[in-house]
Amino acid sequence: MAPLPPENPARPDARARAAAAAGAQSPAAAAPPPVAELARLQLDAAARWHAEPIAYAEDGSLRSWTLANHACNFRLWHEEDKARDRGAGDGEIARVKRAIDALNQRRNDAVERIDELVLAGLERRGLERAGAAAAEAPLHSETVGAMLDRLSILALKVYHMREQAERVDAGAAHRRTCAARLAILEEQRQDLAECLRGLVDDLWAGRKRFKVYRQMKMYNDPDLNPVLYGQPHKA
To answer: Tens digits of per-residue pLDDT, 169-187?
Structure first.
């Protein structure tokens, strides 16, 4: 089992933030997100991380944050498997649940950071808030980061369904069923990537706009979860 992604990839240190800020000022940062490249990156990482430890460059780039989000989803997949182990004791289930909560928070943080970088690129192009995209452009409710997150989950589904379709210890009927499901998942992922490409084209042409939506995960916040703030805080 691959280790956890870096302790908090969605909260970079000052050096990573500086790199991101520098990138936001470069011409490349104003380029639209390379959807096909990022989608391929997720598929490749899903396979690689099953063979070796999770690793990616934390440089504040869109590629880096896409992989940070994907690393959280990768780890979440395997923690969710553990949560369904009928032989696991109460202590192990509690540990897994806390790990899932923490990973979900980091996953959502990474989605928000992706969206911030995309908006920075649009601002660089003069197409958001201060430019041509203006408030008249239709608002798209799903963000680029949210769609990349969905592509990440589908990449993991594709990997694991292919595993099942190729299992030598399973019967032919099982393999046929999983092969059919794999084809559906691959089509779904291809369709979603095409939808994301269309959204990116519309954003960069000023035909659509989006906002960064904060997830406001209240259950993780000791000041907002009554079970937590009703307990004495540990020093």
So the answer is: 999 999 999 999 999 999 9
| Domain chopping of the chain, boundaries | 14-216
Q: 12 is written with which tokens?
A: 């970079």
pLDDT (tens digit, 9 = 90+) per residue, 43-67? 999 999 999 999 999 999 999 999 9
Cα-Cα-Cα-Cα dihedral of 101, 115, 56, 182, to 10°?
Answer: 70
Cα-Cα-Cα-Cα dihedral sign, residues 190, 215, 120, 56: negative
Integer Cα distance of 80 and 221 in angstroms: 22
For residue 110, give the nearest of 42, 8, 4, 34 by alpha carbon. Answer: 8
Task: Give 174's contacts (C-beta < 8 A, 6+ positions apart).
Answer: 164, 167
- Which residue type is seen at 87? G
Reduce the DSSP state of residue 128 to 3 states and report it. Answer: coil
Which pair of structure tokens corresponds to residue 78?
Answer: 């395997």
Q: What is the token pair recorded at 22? A: 């520098």
Please tell me the distance from the alpha carbon of residue 165 to that of residue 159, in angstroms, as a whole number.
Answer: 10
pLDDT tens column, 5-23: 444 443 444 334 434 444 4
Q: Measure the CA–CA gap between 146 and 114, rounded to whole angstroms.
A: 9
For 120-143, write each residue's pLDDT tens digit.
998 887 755 444 445 678 989 999
Full-model pTM = 0.80
Q: Which tokens sit at 94?
A: 């509690």
118 three-class SS? helix
